[in-house]
Write a structure and sequence with these properties.
The complex is a heterodimer of chains A (about 180) and B (about 425). With about 180 residues, chain A is an alpha+beta fold. Chain A has 2 domains: about 50 residues, no CATH class; about 120 residues, Rieske Iron-sulfur Protein. Chain A is built from 3 helices and 11 strands. In chain A, strands 1, 2, 3, 4, 9, 10 and 11 form a 7-stranded antiparallel sheet that branches. Chain A has a 4-stranded antiparallel sheet with strand order 5-6-7-8, with no helix packed on it. In chain A, a hairpin with a 2-residue loop joins strand 3 and strand 4. Chain A is elongated and about 100 Å long. Chain A starts with a helix and ends with a strand. Chain B has about 425 residues and is mainly α. Chain B folds into 2 domains: about 350 residues, Cytochrome Bc1 Complex, Chain C; about 30 residues, no CATH class. Chain B contains 14 helices and 8 strands. Helices cover about 60% and strands about 5% of the residues of chain B. Classes of the chains: A alpha+beta (about 180), B mainly alpha (about 425). The interface between A and B is large, with 32 and 39 residues.
């Protein structure tokens, strides 16, 4: 029991200044700094690990079948939320994702084709796209004309796959609205 | 031992102080604080609802599977296979709905009674507690949002779609926040597990922590604001000097205490022991809340929409009622400035709610009404700000009602008695 009764050299309270300087102060700061650095490091690595390095998401470039097998008019490719149109030998693809908040717009065939003016040009519109979430409306070419959508629907680039001749849609490449792929 | 029915003040005090669950209550509470019509006990209700949510939620965690493939079927199992599963899920859902309502109404009550003001109590910082309360309201909404995503049905899927796209409308960091929330660019397994962990652990822990701080602050602020009010109404009375031990610079000395003149809020006339008076009311509020939740669960069983389908948006796609005012606002706030268009998602989804929140946080520091307006309903001095506040609340409620009852397919306007036209599911 002698060990516990051994008197330690307690630092003198009056001698506060020397106690908190030199080696002791340095070690104190080192310890505190070490703990802080450790916490910051842990925080950073935890946060960083939540930002994925590898995504297992569907490819942006996808084959959608042989051009001649595509039906005349509209085809909806549901897993890509994509409207593909065929007019004889020419093809184009319009995104089904509303530019307001990303709901899938619905293809709405009009009872009677209507005449509208898009960018100063008179066109006949046989169908439109309507969004169920907030009521945005788009003409056949994707031009927004009513509701909260701020931009027209996006058009994606279509190509013919060089290996097997299938149509290839590239959702990372947005194209102008006069784009046509002729096969 | 703990006593339900204390025979003396000392027993009453011990019943509170010596009890782990009760020690954060004051020994005695003023009669005004116990009034039904002052606070309507909305804060207590909110906490009771939170506890119901924790209990039902923990049980649900054992039987729900947070995976894209199995989430929907596990909810179906909870509904149709698990004993009392429907009751568990229904109670959880109703309690969540009610909690949104009670927390909101609690905020309305605090505003209209000027209870975020410091009044005459020393060392109070009620504005800070008001800010904590606003954070708790936002957290309650986030908990609801992350919660209704978990069934992975159509409501869930399109709510994440719209919700995270609103986040991505925020300037500069928006896209990045969406990526971080979803754990990718597409709504898939990463997104589900993230929202799950947020819902069952992260957000509830923050709520619990802030709740403790909220309650601690109420004690530090001298109790409910009505206590300040009561102190104003009382004339200072001479209280006989108490012979006591006093701490001085030289140590403990015996003498008389310095409080020669004091108001008597804590005195015999105006306050009662917390045990049993406060506890009795808390039990009563808890029981009433529980009964309401269970009855509503029987009346409104929890719905489950079709499984999530990324290619088909339901028509109309409606958020839960407490977000419908936001859905209404993002619909009508897209602004056209000639060639430049600002998305309603930014104005209605980010800026407007952000401004409302900042205004709420700032308001206690702006409100310079006097001490007579603290802890009293509709103080005449605060009439103008009360009117503005009520108008803002009424707008939110009005938009909620429009969104709930007057919107149909393609978000078109329909009267409640009008039947919606038949809509093809896909096109």
């Amino acid at each position: 029991m002698k060990f516990f009764q051994k008197k330690r050299n307690k630092p003198q309270l009056e001698d506060n200044s020397s106690y908190r300087s030199g080696r002791r102060l340095f070690l104190e700061k080192l310890g505190l700094g070490g703990v802080l650095a450790g916490l910051v490091g842990m925080g950073f690595q935890s946060f960083r690990s939540l930002i994925p390095n590898l995504l297992y998401e569907p490819a942006q470039r996808t084959k959608i079948g042989m051009p001649q097998n595509l039906a005349e008019g509209m085809t909806f490719i549901s897993d890509m939320r994509l409207y593909v149109f065929r007019e004889g030998k020419s093809f184009y693809a319009v995104s089904g994702s509303c530019t307001h908040l990303g709901c899938t717009v619905k293809y709405t065939k009009l009872q009677q084709p209507k005449q509208v003016e898009i960018n100063g040009e008179k066109t006949v519109v046989p169908f439109e796209f309507h969004c169920p979430c907030h009521g945005s409306k788009f003409y056949a070419d994707g031009t927004n004309y009513a509701g909260p959508a701020p931009e027209p629907l996006q058009w994606y680039k279509l190509e013919v796959s060089p290996d097997d001749g299938q149509l290839l849609v590239d959702r990372s490449q947005i194209v102008e609205r006069n784009f046509r792929l002729t096969v | 031992m703990w006593t339900w029915n204390p025979g003396s003040d000392k027993e009453a005090g011990d019943a509170i102080v010596k009890n782990l669950l009760l020690h954060w209550f004051p020994n005695k509470v003023s009669k005004g604080s116990l009034s039904w019509s002052y606070s309507f006990w909305l804060g207590t209700m909110s906490f009771v609802l939170f506890m119901i949510l924790v209990f039902t939620g923990v049980v649900l965690m054992f039987i729900y599977v947070p995976s894209v493939e199995r989430a929907y079927s596990s909810i179906k199992d909870i509904e149709h296979v698990v004993s009392f599963g429907w009751l568990l899920r229904g109670t959880h859902r109703i309690a969540a709905h009610l909690m949104v309502a009670t927390v909101f109404l609690h905020m309305v009550r605090v505003f209209l009674t000027g209870a975020y003001k410091n009044g005459s109590s020393v060392g109070a910082n009620r504005p800070l507690n008001w800010i904590v309360g606003i954070i708790l309201l936002v957290l309650t909404l986030l908990l609801s949002f992350t919660g209704y995503l978990l069934p992975w049905d159509q409501l869930a899927y399109w709510a994440i779609t719209v919700g995270t796209n609103i986040a991505s409308a925020a300037p500069l960091v928006g896209k990045w926040i969406r990526f971080l929330l979803l754990g990718g660019n597409e709504i898939d397994q990463n997104a589900l597990i993230r929202f799950y962990v947020l819902h069952v652990f992260f957000l509830p822990m923050i709520v619990l922590f802030l709740f403790c701080y909220h309650m601690w602050r109420v004690r530090k602020d001298g109790g409910l604001a009505i206590v300040d009010r009561e102190a104003l109404d009382l004339k200072p009375e001479k209280i006989a000097s108490v012979k006591s031990k006093t701490y001085t610079l030289l140590g403990i000395t015996n003498g008389t205490s310095v409080h020669v003149q004091n108001t008597e809020v804590d005195g015999e006339k105006n306050s009662v022991p917390s045990s049993p008076h406060l506890l009795r009311r808390i039990w009563f509020v808890s029981l009433a809340t529980l009964i309401v939740v269970v009855v509503l669960t029987f009346l409104f069983p929890a719905p489950l929409e079709e499984p999530a389908n990324p290619s088909v948006t339901p028509n109309p796609a409606k958020a839960p009622w407490y977000f419908l005012w936001l859905q209404e606002i993002v619909t009508i706030t897209t602004v056209n400035l000639g060639w430049f268009t600002i998305n309603g998602a930014l104005i209605g989804g980010v800026l407007l709610p952000g401004i409302l929140l900042l205004l709420g946080i700032w308001w206690p520091y702006r409100d310079c009404s006097g001490n007579a307006s603290v802890g009293i309903w509709f103080a005449p001095e605060r009439r103008r700000q009360n009117i503005v506040f009520v108008l803002i609340c009424l707008f939110i409620i009005l938009f909620t009602v429009i969104g709930t009852f007057l919107r149909g397919p393609y978000w078109n306007f329909y009267w409640p008695w009008e039947t919606w036209p038949e809509m093809p599911i896909k096109f």
